[in-house]
Design brief:
Blueprint lengths: L9 H12 L5 H13 L3 H5 L10 E11 L43 E11 L2 H16 L21 H14 L9 H15 L2 H8 L4 H8 L4 H12 L2
Antiparallel strand pairs: 1-2
Helix pairs in contact: 2-4, 2-6, 6-7, 7-8
Amino acid sequence: MSLDIKCLTPQEEERFLDLLKNRKDAERAYMLYHLMLITGLRLSEALSLNVEHASRAKVELKVKGWTKNKPQGCGLVSDNQNHRPKDRGLASDRPQGHGLTSCGQSHSQSQVEKKDRFKTVYFPKTLQGHLKEYLKVKAKRGESLLPEAPLFVSRNGARISPRQVQRDFKKWVKEAGIESDLSPHALRHTVGTRLLKVFKNPKLVQRYLGHSDVATTLRYYVDIFPEDLEEAAESLAER
């Protein structure tokens, strides 16, 4: 697990969910955070869910992904720049294969375009059962159960905002006796860390979390667990 990310330990996760499960004033919080701890959804993705999604085994969610357009007119360019320069000279007039090019005095930045992507999110049967019960809670509160109605709403019936959830999350974390300074995104990191530890497959984690590239997954979860090093040494000793 990377030292740059924060997540719940298994003991903290259990304590956190147990607190919410037994509180009448935490029914929405329990459903939301429990869902995030199973699906690994970003907070914005979880809050985009509607009532119609609660009865499905899987849903297709739109996520934003950054796609860098390839610069035009250059040969090889330096990899250590966030925005790679474009040579406005004639690339065909220069010899090929001589390493990094110099783009001279005239530069322009490559275009970075944000494109929509979709990912499949699976709701296991246990989660489907919890969502079904949560719809009953919504009905008792008089909240709309129309298919296009938001699944998670604030007191005024509108879709709850990420800022409201962030305040709510910090309150429950503190009440659960968890001293770390965590945000709701820590739940997503908890899922990624747990999946990598169990399956040891970065590509699976990438697809589960909806990362656009496995390099993103490795950047967050590349560190080796200490117990894995011990297990590796033991396996080599047995040869």
